[in-house]
């Protein structure tokens, strides 16, 4: 196995809604998906609810490079959404972020 040289960045972000706020958080995340998909450099942006765990959400996102991800995260729209999201979720946003490093079998 070897690391790829692809510059793309894959992010998994998991968050859990506060008790009683599950539907509200799902609606909030649903509204945020399309604008994020339209951000420059986005390859894929999909929101999921974990089967059998209502209120546990995972967003899978891919970006052409780290710069595109950073621009997405620092966009004014995202900065406005953060306080609203923190009201709906348990813990911090950072706790749920995982950056994935791709690897493939050696040729």
Automatic annotation (TrEMBL):
<dbReference type="InterPro" id="IPR050744">
    <property type="entry name" value="AI-2_Isomerase_LsrG"/>
</dbReference>
<dbReference type="GO" id="GO:0004497">
    <property type="term" value="F:monooxygenase activity"/>
</dbReference>
<feature type="domain" description="ABM">
    <location>
        <begin position="9"/>
        <end position="98"/>
    </location>
</feature>
<dbReference type="InterPro" id="IPR007138">
    <property type="entry name" value="ABM_dom"/>
</dbReference>
<keyword id="KW-0503">Monooxygenase</keyword>
<keyword id="KW-0560">Oxidoreductase</keyword>
<dbReference type="Pfam" id="PF03992">
    <property type="entry name" value="ABM"/>
</dbReference>
<protein>
    <submittedName>
        <fullName>Monooxygenase</fullName>
    </submittedName>
</protein>
<dbReference type="GO" id="GO:0005829">
    <property type="term" value="C:cytosol"/>
</dbReference>
<dbReference type="InterPro" id="IPR011008">
    <property type="entry name" value="Dimeric_a/b-barrel"/>
</dbReference>
